[in-house]
């Protein structure tokens, strides 16, 4: 499969998953930002923010060839609306980066680093392939946190227990 065909298919898959992710982020409540169900769990606000920022990873994978977790700049939101807008902007940027992919571009290396140390190195295509799954994984965690806090879980792949009949 050529890189341009891969990128077009990836945009379609992103559209499918980002619509559900946006619904979850929209229901996040800032007063629960520091909530976590267990001491080793991520805080809820970071999960919402992570879901919002993973599309930005797509931009970095395609355009920069690396992300250093120590220097990756996160949004410091004050409202849920800021996170939703950040997500919407990042999805648009990811689609723009994907639309600009040319054949052969995804064979280049991408490195995930921590404080300059390479943690993972693979092709850009290999890293892209896991980004949507990564977002879906964290969205799933977020929905569990939502349920634990009596926030209605939206329909994702069909009606949720909270939206039966809608």
Taking all Cα atoms into account, the compactness measure Rg is 16 Å
Largest sheet, strands/sense/barrel: 3 strands, mixed
Per CATH, what is the topology?
Answer: Four Helix Bundle (Hemerythrin (Met), subunit A)
Global mean pLDDT: 95
* Unreliable runs: none
Q: Could you give me the name of the CATH homologous superfamily? A: dinb family like domain
Content-based structural category: mainly alpha
Individual helix count: 4
Q: What's the shape?
A: globular
DSSP strand count: 3
**Text of the CATH class:** Mainly Alpha
Give the terminus-to-terminus CA distance: 39 Å
Protein name: Damage-inducible protein DinB
InterPro entries: DinB (IPR007837), DinB/YfiT-like (IPR034660)
Binding site for a divalent metal cation: 134, 138
Pfam family, one: DinB
Would you write up a description of this structure?
The termini are far apart. The mean pLDDT is 95. α1 (3-27) packs parallel to α4 (124-148), α2 runs parallel beside α3 (80-99) and α2 (44-63) runs antiparallel to α4 (124-148). With 166 residues, the protein is mainly alpha-helical. The protein has a three-stranded mixed sheet with strand order 1-2-3. The chain has helices at residues 3-27, 44-63, 80-99, 124-148; strands at 66-68, 109-114, 117-123.
Q: How do the strands and helices of this protein lay out in sequence?
A:
Blueprint: H1 3-27, H2 44-63, E1 66-68, H3 80-99, E2 109-114, E3 117-123, H4 124-148
Helix pairs in contact: 1-2, 1-3, 1-4, 2-3, 2-4
